Fold:
Amino acid sequence: MDDSSLFCRSSNHEEEADVLQAMHLASISSHPFTLKVTVDLGLLEMIAKAADTHPVMSIPTVTVTVAVTSSSSLRHLNAMGSSQQNDSSSNHEEEADILQAMHLASISSLPFTLKVVVDLGLLEIIAKAADTPPGTVSIADIVSKLPTNNPNAPSIVDRMLKLLAAHSILTCNQITGQDGLTQRSYGLSSVGKYFLQNKDGVSFVPMLRILLEKYIVECWKFLKDVTLEGGFSCKKAFGKHLFELLADDDDMSECFNRQMSIETTLTMNQVLKNYKGFEGVSQVVDVGGGVGTNLKLIVSKHPQIRGINFDLPQVIKDAVPCPGVEHIAGDMFMEIPKAEVIFLKSVLHDWGDDQCLKLLKVCHDALPKNGKIVSVEAITPEVPETDIISKTILEIDIVLFHVLPGAKERTKQEFEALAKQAGFSSLKIVCRAYSHWVMEICKAV
Structure:
């Protein structure tokens, strides 16, 4: 399976598209910070100079389509002569590039505005209005439900919601009041529902908050320094890595755990829908399985499996008893329980290559001759793609670089190299679950 097929997405999965778009919006704060550091380091100038003297070093360009504003404009363009069309095409391409650059330079306003809208509970107010005709709510009605006497609040709220509507998080319509004046009314889009404070379902609010809280935002200030001097940003900013910081912050720890639970349930439901490799398996060890959420879902779908949830003692102590699952504490870098299948979900991306190799060798020793690892990880393309899956993975990759030493998302080739060094005979990508892929790493051919 090559990179082009890895990043193809079925066009008929509207819900999947909404989930991926919400994930992208929640993690988009990586863009402006990374762009600023790239500019500060002078990397774009280096690439531009290299492109003039060594064309092979030039980077591929991205074509941006400029939408024609009306059908009459389209007819006018089609009526132009060929020379005019060529000139127009060239002008439109340059205009598109300028507009895209302007958009990238100002995009930092989007994630921070979205977070404020979420924190104010505006999406909940709009969502409740969807239950009654006409399914949208006016700015006046929205602001009336806020604890404010600020006369400027309607204007501020309207400006924030217009931005979210421009990014398809909300819908927007103009309505005419009894006084004859027009005003905007807003509704929740299919993407926007994933930013509701949904306690029981899928919500990317915890992810959004984590990425915009001080622990991550402060780290961006040190990206230039660590690029030139080494180290990692979280250590420079706070003297600790992220997990140590969370241990001292109950609120953020709860938010992080909530996000992990949501992501696990969301991804695992899709894994179990698409992956058939657990059929006929009798025993699975989930290494780094946390409190057992993965195995609970696996065993519920495949009740013939005896599951062993394996993690550190401080994690296992909080694991909830589950039929068909045994919780065992230990150190995955030393020894793990033997089983015909070892399950690793989002474990390898937390560690550098040396630690991953050590872990894979321990897994190799614990497997029978015909055993395999089933690993669920994000996979980055060798050459960056512009699809939403690739963007989201690369946004998270740069955050991992900040908060955990050695942590990173990997390409298929990097996973294959690690597997080979650990003694495995093959690595096969089987299927995708949102922004993750299921890989089978087999001990025997």
User: Anything to note?
Assistant: The chain has a mean pLDDT of 88. The chain has 21 helices and twelve strands. The longest helix spans residues 82-106.
